[in-house]
Write a structure and sequence with these properties.
Blueprint lengths: L1 E6 L7 H11 L5 E6 L7 H16 L3 E4 L7 H8 L4 E4 L4 H11 L4 H10 L2 H9 L3 E4 L2 H11 L6 E3 L22 E6 L8 H10 L6 E6 L3 H12 L4 E4 L7 H7 L2 E5 L13 H8 L4 E4 L2 H6 L9 E3 L4 H13 L1 H18 L2 H14 L1
Parallel strand pairs: 1-2, 1-3, 3-4, 4-5, 5-6, 7-8, 7-10, 8-9, 10-11, 11-12
Helix pairs in contact: 1-15, 2-3, 4-5, 8-9, 8-13, 11-14
């Protein structure tokens, strides 16, 4: 079977796309044809369309898989594929994003604009129904997307996000044992992540000199929030970016890694964050926010394979960090159990098996 894996995104090697490609390539019964953009701006759209059409003519794929974030490309890919099955790795339903932003910006112009976009939901639902299969990251997320899109849940399959295991794997810290307990948090800082609760926790721990925070990602707004916290005495350092291949060293040096989500938003209740999988694959101790998914699957257990707190509570985050700093032996066991949980439920091998089952269906 030939499958064309198409990515058209500003981050063409985003972790989710890499995990799906690797999972398919691990199957000797499947010939994986990777199509992805080199351009990062609007030129990426014609670039990927031309590449896909050429592959369609020359190699005749049996299946087309459009990875996140492929909403804009979906109509064209359905047209190119004609009667061949199309799989959409939805990951995040755009109607869900609209609903979240309407809630967060209620009464503001941004919220009103989101209301206009919501009227396009019928078109998106129609496109979803043209797909053979829709992939979500969790079963709870799949159920939510099916509900708001009016698409039968039977059309959805849940495949975990996973991690790029060529990068994220257990390593030993090269730093001498430090008295400082560093808490690591990185990401795009979108609302579901709950950055404000992390920063508030740092402010609450300003009188704990042995505990420091390293925050990575975001933009000017994040830098401004960090600066304000620093002026209040919080022990926070900020970096705009770390190269992915250097992240494992920072993870190994951290006393605790924050996976989240902590935002207590619509989206944050449905997901397990990509960074959580990355930390677990690296055998690092991770603090996560409780979600509907963790409550449903019962895989994540507080103080067993992770630390878990209610979302929307900076106090809970601060208390969990204090506990972690005071219990290094227990934290080591938690990190090892988390790595085992990852291997058994979210690893590349597991993703490959799920993709193989999906291909067998088709």
């Amino acid at each position: 079977m030939k499958i064309a894996v198409i990515t058209c995104y500003k981050y063409p090697d985003y972790g989710r796309a890499v995990a799906l490609r690797s999972g398919l390539k691990a199957n000797p019964k499947i010939q994986t044809i990777v199509i992805k953009n080199r351009y990062k701006g609007v030129l990426r759209y014609p670039e990927v369309l031309i590449k896909t059409f050429v592959i369609h003519l020359r190699q005749r794929p049996d299946v087309y898989l459009l990875t996140f974030r492929g909403y804009e490309m979906l109509p064209a890919i359905l047209l190119i594929a004609l009667r061949k099955p199309v799989i959409l790795d939805e990951l995040v339903n755009p109607l869900e994003v609209v609903a979240e932003h309407r809630q967060l910006y209620r009464g503001k112009m941004r919220g009103k604009l989101m209301g206009i976009w919501q009227n396009l939901g019928g078109l998106y639902s129609w496109l979803l129904r043209r797909c053979k299969i829709i992939i979500a990251d969790t079963s709870i997320h799949a159920a939510y997307s099916a509900k708001i899109s009016h698409v039968p849940i039977e059309r959805f399959r849940a495949i975990p996000v996973g991690a790029d295991e060529a990068i994220f794997k257990p390593i030993v810290s090269t730093q001498a044992k430090a008295e400082e307990f560093m808490v690591l948090y990185y990401g795009s800082m979108v609302p579901l992540h709950g950055l404000k609760y992390v920063i508030e926790a740092a402010e609450q721990l300003k009188d704990q000199p042995q505990i420091s925070f390293l925050l990575v990602g975001g933009g000017d707004q994040t830098a401004g929030q960090v600066k304000a916290a620093q002026e209040l005495g919080a022990n926070v350092k900020y970096l705009t970016w770390i190269d992915p291949d250097k992240l494992p060293n920072f993870i190994a040096d951290a006393g605790l890694c924050l996976g989240g989500p902590f935002g207590n938003t619509i989206q944050s209740q449905l997901v397990t964050t990509g960074k959580t999988y990355q930390f677990m694959a690296s055998a690092a101790a991770v603090l996560i926010g409780e979600t509907k998914e963790t409550s449903a699957n019962k895989l994540f257990v507080d103080k067993s394979n992770c630390l878990m707190v209610p979302q929307g509570s900076s106090k809970a985050i601060a208390e969990a960090i204090i506990w972690a700093q005071a219990h290094p032996a227990e934290l080591k066991k938690i990190s090892q159990s988390g790595n085992k949980l990852y291997g058994e439920n979210f690893s590349a091998g597991v993703i490959s098996q799920k993709l193989a089952s999906l291909m067998d269906e088709i």
